[in-house]
Amino acid sequence: MYNFDKTANRLETSSLKWMYPDVLPMWVADMDFDTLDIVKDAIKKRVDLGALGYTNTPDYYFDAFRDFWIKRHHVDFKKEWMIFSTGVVPAISSIVRRVTKINDRVLVLTPTYNIFFNSIINNHREVSQSDLIYDGKEYKIDWKDFEARIKNGVRMLILCNPQNPVGKIWSRGEIERIGKICYENNVVVLSDEIHCDIVTPGMEYIPFASVNDINKQISITCISASKCFNLAGLQGACVVIPNEKIRKLVNRGLNTDEVAEGNAFVYDAFSVALNKGEAWLDEMNKYVYNNKKILRNFLNENLKELDYHFGDATYLAWVDCKRITDDTKFLCEYLKDKAKVYFSYGEEYGVNFKTFIRINLATSKENVTEGLNRLLKGINLYKEEYKK
Ligand SMILES: Cc1ncc(COP(=O)(O)O)c(C=O)c1O
Questions:
Q1: Domain span holding position 339
Q2: How many whole angstroms from 89 Cα to the centroid of ligand 1?
Q3: Residue that is last in its domain, among 216, 241, 276
Q4: Can you list the positions of beta strands (E) in 195-275?
Q5: 49 C-alpha to ligand 1 centroid (Å)
Q6: How far is CA 372 from CA 272, 311, 355, 375, 378, in A?
Q7: Among 260, 276, 292, where does a domain finish?
Q8: Least crowded by CB within 10 Å, which of 86, 96, 126, 291?
Q9: What is the CATH number of the domain that holds 313?
Q10: Tens digit of pLDDT for each residue in 34-84?
């Protein structure tokens, strides 16, 4: 019904992703798929009105989030718990400033979304990082290390649920255990759930706040329609905080930081996508799943030295290149220059992940195939030049 083979030419649009001429970009977590016609129509309607002035956050924006999360994720986030923000990252930075103090520690589970580090360090807090353990099949929390860190000056955990870059859907047991340990040690959990609607067909993520009352009371959940419906450039999110005391604090912060008011398009675009976009989302997930299979088959046939961890969430692939290099920052630059394809390098997501690359698969299968051919060519050139 929808055509995910069709991608817009973004070269003339100052696109961040497509900023390197001649390079096929498979790095930043940004989609190339054509967004929904109903979203485009909602934006056009607003343009035709000719009134693009300041806009209050309408009630229907929060209704759309509430209805969607009830229907798709079986949790009732009350409207009075919700606050608009101009994005998940602006919210995270603001929340770090409000909920923690200078020099406090903020815990992350690495490898994790690189901008979490910026939000912590730029606000003069200290990053505490607990590396996930890979058992050959799955990434798991090192509970001993996690608990020791939580007890050692940590005031907040920033959880990526599901996890970018490894694509992990946290289990109910893991989410409950995180909540219990954090609650017992007075740690607030900021659960970034921006990737939650990009999952293997048939799979579901578990909202952190949904599992019990403890989790609800210590949680700040950031959700959005941006990542899954290709609306990131509109800049919007919804921050959900059941605990009144924390909500008041964060609300003050978001307003003081001037990130609590949206532009003239974001409310209508997000609302219509959430209200009427489920069929598009389901098809998009099938398409991304197929792209993951294309990647897996390609590596199995042509590049056996690379180990692909097939994650059930996100459109990102986490690939270990340890048999090729121990410096993927260098490798990614090399591939960009010599093979004209660009990936994200592992070290961005945690210091101990220097052998990994992250591949963005939210593009047409034609681009995926072309990108993989360029990867193969680039790796062969690299091996010739820097044979281990
Ligand atoms: C885990 C995670 N959180 C937040 C963002 C960005 O959110 P926003 O564009 O709403 O600031 C990204 C983008 O890649 C992400 O991967």
A1: 24-35+278-385
A2: 6
A3: 276
A4: 219-223, 237-240
A5: 31
A6: 35, 18, 18, 5, 10
A7: 276
A8: 126
A9: 3.90.1150.10
A10: 999 999 999 999 999 999 999 999 999 999 999 999 999 999 999 999 999
